[in-house]
Amino acid sequence: MPLSKTELTELAANLFDSYDEGFEGDTPLTDSIIARAEVELGYKLPADYTALMRLKNGGNLKRRLFHYTDEDGAQCSLMVRSLYGIGFTNDSALCGEMGSRFLEDPENHALPHVGIYFAEEDNGHGFFALDYRNIGANGEPPVINIYQDDLTEEYIADSFAGFVRRLTEDE
């Protein structure tokens, strides 16, 4: 289910922290920046992702705890450091020097080409991706987490909207 305007406004106001470590995208975010990013990345970004980024274009998270049930039924939590904004200027924006494609570069992290890497774990060993290999019944890529150490892939959410809805503040 897509994010409502109320949810988008609430997320833009309360999801992100007041500081940024280079994850924010270009501002103002324009249609041409989004189109250029989609060409560079090779995929159309989910509508909920672009809608949120139009209100707050990435950055470090305040609500960074993600709870989920793993494949074995165990309750787990991950600390999500940031969401990559749409842009080219900041190093860790989607198309920045250390953005999504940098993570796939064999000379760097050498993560598998699954789609678009858009967030990272707080420990720097796990990266969240929109998995375009497995488009869901909702027409959106699911979110997976890939661990850099052994390239283990773990299903996280049905969509970007499902992912951000479940982010909470530290307990």
Q: Would you count the extended β strands for me? A: 8
Helix content: 10-25%
Helix count, DSSP H or I runs of 4 or more residues? 5
Q: Quick one: overall form?
A: globular
The ordered string of helix (H) and strand (E) elements is HHHEEEHEEEEHE
Low-confidence stretches: none
- What's the main sheet like? 8 strands, antiparallel
Q: What is the CA–CA distance across the termini?
A: 27 Å
Our Rg estimate from Cα atoms comes to: 15 Å
The SS-based structural class is: alpha+beta
What is the arithmetic mean of pLDDT? Answer: 92
How much of the sequence lies in strands comes to: 15-25%
Can you walk through the features of this model?
Strands 1, 2, 3, 4, 5, 6, 7 and 8 form an 8-stranded antiparallel beta sheet that branches. A hairpin with a 5-residue loop joins strand 2 (65-69) and strand 3 (75-83). Helix 1 (5-14) crosses helix 3. The protein has 5 helices and 8 strands. Helices cover 24% and strands 24% of the residues. The protein is globular, with a radius of gyration of 15 Å. The mean pLDDT is 92. It has 171 residues and is α+β, with helices and mostly antiparallel strands.
